[in-house]
């Protein structure tokens, strides 16, 4: 798995009613990278989270984003069985774009 988390960001300062604004910012970055949202859901193990599956055109592979407001966490990941050249090449720049939006830093998570 390849995973980058946005740390030391201003997400901890987001008030409960402002989470929709965070989601809008995330979706603007998705559009900036010309990715398609193929799934938007909540993870059952992370109540209140917003989890995306993103694809590039009809190519194989998925880039996943999870925003968990209750924990003030945001990360981008690729699971091993969904890892292809396009998502490997885009994950770090995508995470960096999110870190700029939320005034944080990108941390590679092993």
Describe the protein's architecture and organization.
This protein has 110 residues and is an alpha+beta fold. It has one domain: Double Stranded RNA Binding Domain. Helix content is 28%, strand content 32%. The protein is built from two helices and six strands. It has a six-stranded antiparallel β-sheet, with helices on one face. The chain is globular.
> What oligomeric state best describes the polypeptide chains here?
single chain
Largest sheet: 6 strands, antiparallel
Shape: globular
Total helical segments: 2
For the record, what CATH class applies? Alpha Beta
Question: Mind telling me the C-alpha Rg?
Answer: 13 Å
Question: What's the helical proportion of residues?
Answer: 25-40%
CATH architecture: 2-Layer Sandwich
Under CATH, the topology can be stated as Double Stranded RNA Binding Domain
The succession of helices and strands, N to C, reads EHEEEEHE
Briefly characterize the structure:
With 110 residues, this protein is α+β, with helices and mostly antiparallel strands. The protein is built from two helices and six strands. It has one domain (2-109): Double Stranded RNA Binding Domain (2-Layer Sandwich), CATH 3.30.160.
What are the main properties of this structure?
32% strand, 110 residues, single chain, 2 helices, 6 strands, 6-stranded antiparallel β-sheet, alpha+beta, Double Stranded RNA Binding Domain
